[in-house]
Amino acid sequence: MISEKNRWMDGGVDAYFFHEPLIFLRRRGAKRLDMNDSFLYQHSEKHIESLKKEGIELVIFHYHKGFGPELEEDEMPLTEKGIRRCRNKNIRTGVYIRIDNIITETFLNKIPEAENWLAVDSLKNNPYAIGLPQYFRKRVCLRNPGYRQYLEKIIKRAVKELDVDVIHFDGAWMGLESHSCQCDMCRKDFLDFLYQKYPDKTARKERFGYSDLNSIGLPHYYDDALSPFEMETISDPVMQEWIIFRCRSHSETMRTLAGYAREEAPSVVIEANYMCPSGGNLAYLQGVWDSWSIRELDAIWSETSDDAELCENGVLVSRARAFKKARTCSSMVFYIPNGELSWWEGIVFGNGAVRFKFNKSKFIPNPKFTKNYKKELINSKSAAEIAVLHSFSALAYNSRETHRSVVLMEQALLQSNIHFDIIFDEDLAELNNYKALVLPDVECLTNEQCAKIKGFVKNGGGVLATEKTSLFDEYRRERRDFALSDLFKISIENKNIENINTHCVFGKGRVAYLGGIVAGGKEEYTVKVLDWGDFGFTKKNWFLPENTNAIRNSINWIMNYDCPVDVYAPYTLLSNIEYNDKKFIIHLLNYDTNNKVYDLVVRIRKKLAGTTQAARLIIPGKKEKTINLINGNEKYELIIPEIEMYALVILDNI
Ligand SMILES: [Zn+2]
User: CB neighbours (10 Å) of residue 445?
Assistant: First the structure.
């Protein structure tokens, strides 16, 4: 559910951005001769008018790229003019602020002391923000007080003088390993962090081997040695603590920068782009843990290439995971749809999401639908009764297997239309909001977490666990046996554990254990960063697992054969269920754009429908229809005659 102050984004927003200042476009190298003209046109009355006609409700303007004071000032009157023109037409506005780097060749002339703000890696180099050919952009230490003071002024000015609705932070990460900032201040703060966490001498000795940590080495890499992208598991205690320190620093940075803006205007939307990829170890590589950081923000930008698509090899790609993560943290997703299917995905999974027009030919909004039905979707919450756990230690200290299992489990659930939320460690406190919990190779769990999960099942909850779930503690130290061994009724001693597929009862609840998730196609782990943020178990591996049927059966078992909604669809149609005060909502999205789906059967638990006897069927471009609910044994059934791409089913007055 979206937070109160950001309700204007709820139900979805079509948006536009031109965030690059002319100074940057020129320095980077003009791609077109008419660049100046098109840049000026962007701010013109004519252009803003055309955006308004298209239904654009938010425009993000260039504001701060990192060239330093005065240089970008030349272009500020244009930003101001554009903002004014938007406001006159009731279009909301935002500004772009790049935070992870400065263009040293100009910046240092204006503020020489900014030399001390630069990030310093383990080889004492000032790393580039992004790769070649943009060698002129150097990373800064986001924790540096001088740099923060500078950013504070920039941020406050945008909020006070330009009165914008949105602040967009770009480059919102701690910097790619092997070039994490190890400046004197970061090093000192890390040591303080260790001493605070382990005040006791014996505890330090137990964790690190010795207790005087003052000369302890930070993770160190040579460029020609092992790439951090090839580190499969991380058991070095300093590296583990360094990952925690970096991720905590990131969420603290987000909170601090957001605070500068909120001090001036509490309702301003703070959104940050850290890509939000799925399948890669972002905690280790970029110092970002979704749960800790998203909760500090009102929105995140998902800039991965996970755009909705049914690939030729049968892989179904979706951005559903980013939408689900944001939703759990009461946040929204900003993204650039690359086509009609992708645009609808924001409606289906993302509370509507904030959809940016970038490439005109690929941005296919549906203003008629937005105008007529957006209001139906506002204030909706997930109706999922199953939660999939993303646990920090399992995903931060293992860059391969655990990510693979999470992605493939979610793929099986998505394509089987088993509706689920993604939750994080802290959400286990609210576990009773769900009927079942899925633990895809959650190899690291604390004793407390295991006790919590056991209690949940004892009282009637369901658990599906796979592979090494609970075999390790929170520092990835292997136990003699699964901590949840009595729950699974399986021991690590069991032979051929990867083939085990069992269902059992524990207390009042039900448990299923699957020894393996079988690949549905040829898997390839990507060790290089591709396409901005795509690394690890990338989308090309997202084949539907071969044992998806076993996963479905296990879910049915742990849910006591009573999922709230069953959708009898091909694997290429995904769905989502939501409710608000009086409505129950089912979104259906067909990814197979070459084949329509006919006579789709949907069964709804009777209790969810209340006294309603009919549902409204809304298909874009067609007249709204009423469909009667057919009375079955435990569920109502409704049949949708034909779905081309998107269909919306609404049960009113439940
Ligand atoms: Zn630093």
Answer: 29
Residue 398 DSSP label = B
The ipTM of this complex is 1.00
Q: Residues 569, 542: one domain?
A: no
In the reported structure, the alpha carbon of residue 235 is separated from the centroid of ligand 1 by a whole-number distance in angstroms of: 24
396 and 330 part of one domain? no
Find the 117 Cα to ligand 1 centroid distance in Å. Answer: 8
What is residue 187's three-state secondary structure? helix
Cα 45 to averaged position of ligand 1 atoms, centre (Å): 44
Between CA 437 and CA 598 the distance in angstroms is 33
Digit-coded pLDDT (tens) for 169-212: 999 999 999 899 999 999 999 999 999 999 999 999 999 999 99
Distance between CA atoms of residues 81 and 227, nearest Å: 47
- Confidence class of residue 473 from pLDDT cuts 50, 70 and 90? very high
Ligand 1 center to residue 118 CA distance, Å?
8
Residue type at position 203: A
181 CA → ligand 1 middle, Å = 4
Class of residue 482 by CB neighbours under 10 A (exposed 0-12, middle 13-18, buried 19+):
buried
Distance 183 CA to ligand 1 centre (A): 4
Domain boundary among 359, 382, 405: 382
Together in a domain, 334 and 409: no
Query: Which residues form the domain of 338?
Result: 4-182+218-382
CA of 287 to the centre of ligand 1 (A): 13
- Cα(304) to ligand 1 centroid in Å equals 27
Is 424 strand, coil or helix? strand
Total count of residues recorded for the chain: 654
